[in-house]
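Batch manifest line 415
LIGAND: cytidine-5'-triphosphate
JOB: complex structure
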Amino acid sequence: MSERDRGVGARRAPRVLLAVCGGIAAYKACEVLRGLQKAGCEVRVTMTADAERFVGAATFEALSGAPVADSLYGHPETPIPHIELSEWADLALVVPATANVMAKMATGIADDCLTTTLLACHGSCPVLVAPSMNTRMWENPATQANVLTLLERGVRLVEPASGRLACGEVGAGKLADVEDIVSAALKLIGDMTRPKDLAGARLLVNAGPTHEAIDPVRYIANRSTGKMGFAIAAAALARGAEVWLVAGPVSLPTPFGARRLNVTSAEDMRGACLSLFGHVDAAICSAAVADYTPARPADHKLKKSREHLDAIELTETADILAELCAVKGDRVVAGFAAETDELLAHAREKLERKGADLIVANDVSRPESTFGADTNRVSLVSEAGTKQLETMPLPQVADAILDAVRDLLRERGRL
Ligand code: CTP
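JOB STATUS: finished
ARTIFACT:
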């Protein structure tokens, strides 16, 4: 646990660096600052020159009770304000995040105090952006690509709302509600203050579906969204674990701090999991790995003819979970059983056949535990017995699974 982790919530107030960019919504950053202070946070402000055209630095200085960092130069107290600020902050919050600043963040441009500080936040504190701009600017593929890049790198997003914009148009791009921005920031800070009961544990989580190529344009897939596995990775990180996340083709943001490997096919996922397994204490296999794959994917697009489709021969994929279990030694391996009938019988059969320590069983025919739901209702099946949990939001389900994995790690002396 870093010095900063120990400090948050224990000895001192959480520290938020508010990065204010040049947009009409800059005045809302004052309310965000106030909301954070009311929740007990200490706030410092960095702003761009354009932001100061909308709200003066004096306003933020008065509200925060600290000098505003708007230049890299002329700070007698520190010659390197961007490094000092990035190390001081527990969270950097960009409000409003303009298209220009997000483009700079995505490409690593650091040409003023605000963007240089955000660049220095990498590996030091999480960054949360709350964009605000005209709808066409928000929907511009360039902006969307930049947002995607930032999300993939672990930057968090408070989605802009839809409504009447300052320019008079109606559409997406309006700064999210101040309360929503403040609570997203507090949630991230809350994660930091959680007990680090998994500190020292190294986890491998696989998630999402796999795509099995029929030809260069077609594939066989399943309905998995990866949400459950990503929630497990996020919760494990918040509880202090080191996490490797092997993700099938999903469009979910990387949980802050996760080491992510993107894979496509069952064979790719197998390769990634087997090579990482040597470095971890536990593996949680939540991925819906395809059971079958085309034996000989075509190297050209198959034309619409019955012969070709009839000719697709399927071969069974390797069972990653079973392979990990076969070599696990005292490591902990958990798998999932997504079933539509005879849930517990199938789950226990999988536990025994694959040699897993834990099977998380969910009935995917129920709306609250089906693919893509934000809740899940699972049973934890292990040698010790079966524990039926209530329907809960995915983060809570993730915590319950991790509690069980933590207990098994402790039993094995790995934690
Ligand atoms: N699994 C795996 N590799 C495979 C198939 C499944 O690692 N090729 C893992 C999944 O990640 C999950 C568990 O095995 O943790 C159970 O997956 P599931 O699809 O429910 O079971 P199967 O073994 O495929 O059996 P069936 O499809 O007959 O239910």
